[in-house]
Amino acid sequence: MTTTALPRTSREVRLAALPRALPETADLTVAETATPAPAPGHVLVRNRHFQVFGGLRTLIGGVADDTPVPGLRPGDALYGPAVGEVVAAPDAGPLRPGDLVTHLLGWREYALVPVAECRPADPALPDPAAHLTSGSAAYGALTRLARVREGDVVLVTGAAGGVGSLAGQIARLLGAARVIGTTGTPGKAARLTAELGYDTVLTAGSWRERGTGDADAGYRAFAARLAEAAPDGIDVLLDNVGGVQLTAAVDAARPGARLALVGALSGQFDPAGTGNTAPARIDSFRLLFQGASLLGYTGRDHPDVEAEWTGRFGAWLRSGEIQLPLTRVTGIERAPRALWELTRGETFGTVVVDLP
Predict the structure, then answer these.
(1) Which residues span the domain enclosing 53?
(2) pLDDT in tens, 132-141
């Protein structure tokens, strides 16, 4: 086992209590623990960056039984995508101290990771934090399900999040003629048009306004704005939200429209919900009449996408054809607050915690 000198203790973020609604900072705690000891078949990684992602709301909410990854209980350390430096590795293994790797044991300063679950960071990406974006989901959905064509009108809901902030740019690079986004605030809308190339961004129909006044008011407001932005309808939907925005998008589908579902923020970030359901009213006659497709995207169904995306993403970053929007915070002690801000819609792009 090849190793370097290690500190005796490190820190990790643990779930302190099951949230009653959206997670509060008090539901998480930063705990000091013994630094993991090197073990056969594992590499010890000092994490440099990890991602704060919306799916944690479901994993820490006590309702993750049907998800493909395990839920969390009080006392458990959180986990998620991370980039780090190998500090201890088996002598006969493929990794050496100093190697930069990606894995899924973020939310801690040091992680003991099975060699099989650790992947060398691809040098195609110039910024290590770029490995933590959800761009592969956007790319996969737009190339495998929606199959964007030259001249398409594309709608991206939740455009200021980790997926949406890249999806609009990807759609344009794939040939879309018009890219429309949705977000919760005028400030984010201005950034999406000024910095990321969206033609127009709608702020009506926010799921955060649900439960006030007429139950259909959000739908009517959003449908009216969408009709103004795309009077002839849409060819492609990349949906991160669901709810009334998905309802209106189906109603706006043109013949042969391809609708790809990537997220469900209307349910995941609903304070009154459980984080694992996102009901939406769908006009199935509209889908049938227009010959439209409605499919959900998961990376495990498209294992070839990740490598293809990384290669194209790296080339687009180096050429300046794509921007990488990040909300970066420094220090593991700020991670609970970063999750709080993400679930309240206060972040922009992918949220990354840097560990100095």
Answers:
(1) 2-132+324-354
(2) 999 999 999 9
